[in-house]
Specification:
12 strands; Pyridox_Oxase-rel (chains A, B); Pyridoxamine 5'-phosphate oxidase family protein (chains A, B); Split_barrel_FMN-bd (chains A, B); about 230 residues; homodimer; 6 helices; alpha+beta
Chain lengths: ~230, ~230
């Protein structure tokens, strides 16, 4: 998971630590590398957004995109929460499950995963140009090439779209990879099999809308994705 | 996604509606079938748990299991939150992303998914037998066959394990399947390709712990899973 990159911007390549992002459990592998955060965000397109609704946590799946400093989020639930309290904090979590960790003991069982958590107070994007730019990021994040292929939003559609931005300033990353932890402990003598069962997600072949007239082929940027690994 | 089942228990097969589970947006397909809730929970093993920490939402991925009426959750974050306020509500969301919905217009783009959201106040399980039964559910949920294969928790390990239960009484389900919605609208005349790009998750071949002595084979319940579809 470690990546070496030449910093392309003036952003710190190390994530700042706050009370909420500091890793408190040793067995969970925290990362302070910005490249790990970016890799996790770029590997997926659906996050789980936690907001307060009437003082209770509500966790909704929603699509996102990003630039160097901000996450862009679709979300009517978050915007209702934001309308009720413009200073209401949210938490966005993106998780990729890479497989099961099957140890000798149930106690040492676990999951290999990559997860990023972002804390902050989102802002609703209202400026038309800014909203268009954000939606472009979001669309291209999920499906590179689709923004210029599909019909772009009209002014009316833009007005009907809720888009939020959330700073990436306060983020934490946790990654677990590899074998179980009890291979050199007393349970190794049990003679049980131990290892991992990997989980892989792949894009399938594009399925045409049944209403699509014959003769319209899927564009290259969609066809090329079929069979490739996701996340 | 619809399933017809003979009710095996006295539980209502229709989920009760509350202010929080009532579906407020027509374009999202809510389901009130308990079988849909159960199918979504049974298809995965990692949920996103939203808790309040110092009045802010925190969303953590964690493993879960279930019986007919309750969810079982691993979770130190939730238990810390619970210790601070035993009546603190949580929200658990399980989402399976089935693919991208690629419409003629960016505005109609979306995601095919199955998602279940459970609201409630969790309870920490402290009784030893109850904890053992819950951990068995949780272990067998992620890896059927593993509870009897691996070494089961000792009393000391049980004491060190945090297990919560959460009632399934207040749950809502949302499912989106199928083609984009703009196939019979004015954008159909644009002549653009539209359809879906499916996403499928599969179990790979078991990978032995490098510390495993030669000659110990992976058990049948693990080997049989390789290549099968997840979620």
């Amino acid at each position: 998971m470690t990546q070496t990159e030449t910093p392309a911007t003036t952003l710190s390549r190390t994530l700042p630590q706050t009370d909420r992002t500091r890793h408190s459990r040793l067995r969970e592998q925290g990362s302070l590398e910005r490249s790990d955060l970016e890799a996790i965000l770029d590997a997926g397109f659906v996050c789980h957004l936690g907001v307060l609704v009437d003082g209770r946590p509500v966790v909704v799946p929603t699509v996102y995109g990003r630039d160097d400093t901000r996450l862009y989020l679709h979300g009517s639930v978050a915007s209702r929460s934001l309308a009720a309290d413009p200073d209401a904090p949210v938490c966005v979590t993106v998780t990729h499950v890479d497989g099961l960790v099957l140890a000798r003991s149930v106690f040492e069982h676990g999951v290999n995963y990559r997860s990023a958590m972002i804390h902050g107070v989102p802002r609703a994007i209202t400026d038309t140009d800014e909203k268009l730019a954000g939606l472009r990021r979001l669309t291209e994040h999920a499906t590179p090439g689709q923004w210029t292929y599909a019909r772009q939003p009209s002014r009316k559609e833009l007005a009907a779209t809720t888009l939020l931005e959330l700073s990436l300033d306060e983020a934490s990353v946790k990654i677990r990879t590899g074998a179980p932890d009890d291979g050199d402990g007393p349970d190794a003598a049990l003679g049980l099999w131990a290892g991992t069962l990997p989980l892989t997600s792949r894009w399938g072949a594009p399925t045409a809308d049944p209403l699509l007239p014959h003769g319209i082929k899927a564009p290259a940027h969609i066809v090329a994705r079929a069979g490739t690994r996701h996340a």
